[in-house]
Amino acid sequence: MKITVDFEECLKDSPRFRATIEEVEGDVCELESKLDKLVKLCIGMIDAGKAYNAANKQFVSGIRELAQQSTKDEVIESSLTKFAESLQEMINYHTILFDQAQRSIKTQLQTFVKDDLRKFKEAKKQFDKVSEEKEAALIKNAQAPRNKQHEVEEATNILTATRKCFRHIVLDYVLQINVLQSKRRSEILKSMLSFMYAHLTFFHQGYDLFSELQPLMKQLGGQLDQLVVDAAKEKRDMEQKHSTIQQKAALQEATELDSLLDCRSFSAWRSTSDFSNDDTKLEYNVDADNGIAMEGYLFKRASNAFKTWNRRWFSIQNNQLVYQKKFKDNPTVVVEDLRLCTVKHCEDIERRFCFEVVSPTKSCMMQADSEKLRQAWIKAVQNSIATAFRDKGDDGEKLDRKSSTSTGSLDSGGETKERSLKGESALQKVLAIPGNASCCDCGQPDPRWASINLGITLCIQCSGIHRSLGVHFSKVRSLTLDTWEPELLKLMCELGNRVINQIYEARREELGARKPQPGDPRQEVEAYIKAKYVHRRFVRRPSDEELQNKVVTLSKQEKRLSSSSEHLPPKAPPPTPKLRPGSNVSGQSVKSADSGIQNSADGSREMLATTPSNNSLADADAAESPPMPATLPPPSPCKEVVFYEPKEYSSGLQLYWASCARSLPDMAEALAHGAEVNWVNTEEEKRTPLIMAVHGGSLVTCEFLLQNAANVNQQDAQGRGPLHHATMLGHTGQVCLFLKRGANQNALDIDEKTPLTIAVEAANADIVTLLRLAKMNEEMREAEGPYSQSGDETYQDIFQDFTHMASNDPDKLNRYQQHDPQRP
């Protein structure tokens, strides 16, 4: 009820006025109490709402984590992600609702209480004070004696002044009361109406959100019914399979037990046991799709002093015997080539079911779980040996059906291409490099193995030791059995044993370390190789001044190379690599080109055979107009690369500038000094050595960094990876290399551009063709299934053509720079 006070009544100061004043004051006091309580309750509600939102956010985060863990199940991942997004929107709506409650209830009503009620209380204090003064004046005026005129006049004057002040104060007080009574209605209704509208908006937004989500929920409901039916069917199938296998195992055990009790011979027992162990593959199949002829668990005797036995998963694949401790571990090679080994029973040791595989350099003792399994493994090894010899005899230089597991080959198809160098071709070219005719570590002549990330040749014993170091130290490949990609062969010809030994054996004589000789015990050779490559004890550490001079020299060398490349004479544009008739890329037909690629690839082999092992670019700077070496394409001018004075010099900075200057010996030296291959230059937009190698324009330096575990997708401060930079610079050969090495062509830079977008804007037909072909091949492989390795033959042929042009005739891929040399 609204209580107002009449202004006329207040001047009379009647009892009715006083009663009204008391009623108003009591009502305002109660109003203040209720408003304070409501504000406190609102604060509690807001705090509880914030706690609810925080808990709800954690719940949504748990849903997102579950979705990320279910990446292999597209339905669960997409559904949970959508649900998490919707719940996050509801959390945002709740946050808005609580903010509105704070503004409309808490803030607005607190302001009303603090401002308007405070003014009322101040006016009440003044009214009470002047009322008391008026009452005192009246009493004094009434008590003034008639015969004392001066006291009468004084009392009269005080009463007159007090009444005048009272009328002024009481009018202000009544005005404040009436204003407060009028404002309380609007303030309370305004705040509550605002709060209710916030609720209305909240529920409208929630309704709209879940209306959009409803079709998906209905669709998932239908799928859920089918999933329940499928799960029940799968359960029945698995129960049937479980029962069948259980019966099969019981029958096998009964058959074996009867055979043993009858004391029949092993051959008779084997003939009655027609049931193979379900946990072990007993059949030998050399033409298996995955290249694994046989696999299963065996106990292996260690070569340590205690001769401990460990259970490992063995397999025969690609004419090699390998084993793993865990599925994700890289296979450890026991026998490099089964043609060089023999297998025999071992009956002179205490353990049963043992057999031994003996190679020219070592022997491996293994134990099967039963006599049947031992015979199966021995037969499998013997069949692999026979198959390897037969394949060798039938096809001379025939390669293994699959690449060696340690080669790191990244060809998507896995098939051998005619123009890929192999066998004696690769052997002759690599051994022609000075120092490569003997093993890098022990000096054994006529090596047949190589470490592709170090660029050295090895004998069979040292190659086995290098394999045991792990691929992060050395990647071993056969010079006669494996296929060699052109860029990898050029990498081998750029380095060589002489260059690497100058780095890794710089302090060997100073420390008095003896280098192994052919025929030394394996333990001594292994200790020396670990000291050389793992611990790097013989590497000479440069002083700060030497390191600074090296970095400055490399930066100047890079500038001279860039300036000299700006004046290279233009050449006629080459033909585009041929597509098969009817093939197309992204719906665009590609015309058949002239057949000059094969000729260029053949002609380059003569050139490559005479390439020196250490093509020091610093020597080329001394000449006025030096011819560019055959193994390094002319670099593209890079105006963005500017040498600066760094805060401190490091081996990472040396690798950074050596990559741009295309100096492989200096890069190898930096890695030997402990440089991080993915070192980031924070003062140069977070660029990496691989990005600088792209700007240097050399395919071989990029290959060298990739073989030493450089991240092909690491981005700079602009969000651009090596593939972005190679596309912007028009380096077609590098684009081809990065795509083969798994570069992500869907990556976006800070301008939201992919490499394909950049190539299309630059009208670079070659790079657009490569990117679209790679995308098409990836989609085809995904459509064929997760285990498909074949890909499209057109894609493989085109990439082979670009690979050979980039390695053997790089000028043919410089059309982009020739047509528009001012483009960055």
UniProtKB/TrEMBL annotation:
Residue ranges of ANK repeats: 685-717, 718-750
PROSITE patterns listed in its UniProt record: ANK_REP_REGION, ANK_REPEAT, ARFGAP, PH_DOMAIN
InterPro entries hit by this protein: ACAP1/2/3-like, AH/BAR_dom_sf, Ankyrin_rpt, Ankyrin_rpt-contain_sf, ARFGAP/RecO, ArfGAP_dom, ArfGAP_dom_sf, BAR_dom
Activity regulation, free text: GAP activity stimulated by phosphatidylinositol 4,5-bisphosphate (PIP2) and phosphatidic acid.
Compositionally biased spans, kind Low complexity: 404-413
Residue ranges of every copy of the PH domain listed in the record: 291-386
Compositional bias ranges of the Pro residues kind: 626-635
Protein keywords: ANK repeat, Cell membrane, Coiled coil, Endosome, GTPase activation, Membrane, Metal-binding, Repeat, Zinc, Zinc-finger
Membrane topology: Peripheral membrane protein
Annotated segments matching region Disordered: 392-421, 549-635, 802-824
Protein location: Cell membrane; Endosome membrane
Main location: membrane
Keyword Transferase: no
Signal peptide: none
UniProt biased composition (Polar residues): 583-602
SMART domains attached to this UniProt entry: ANK (SM00248), ArfGap (SM00105), PH (SM00233)
GO molecular function, one term: GTPase activator activity
Gene Ontology CC annotations of this record: endosome membrane; plasma membrane
Domain of life, per lineage: Eukaryota
Annotated Basic and acidic residues bias: 392-403, 809-824
Key word Metal-binding present: yes
Domain (Arf-GAP) ranges: 424-546
Domain notes: The BAR domain mediates homodimerization, it can neither bind membrane nor impart curvature, but instead requires the neighboring PH domain to achieve these functions. PH domain binds phospholipids including phosphatidic acid, phosphatidylinositol 3-phosphate, phosphatidylinositol 3,5-bisphosphate (PIP2) and phosphatidylinositol 3,4,5-trisphosphate (PIP3). May mediate protein binding to PIP2 or PIP3 containing membranes.
Function of the protein: GTPase-activating protein for the ADP ribosylation factor family.
Protein name: Arf-GAP with coiled-coil, ANK repeat and PH domain-containing protein
Native source species: Betta splendens (Siamese fighting fish)
Gene: LOC114853510
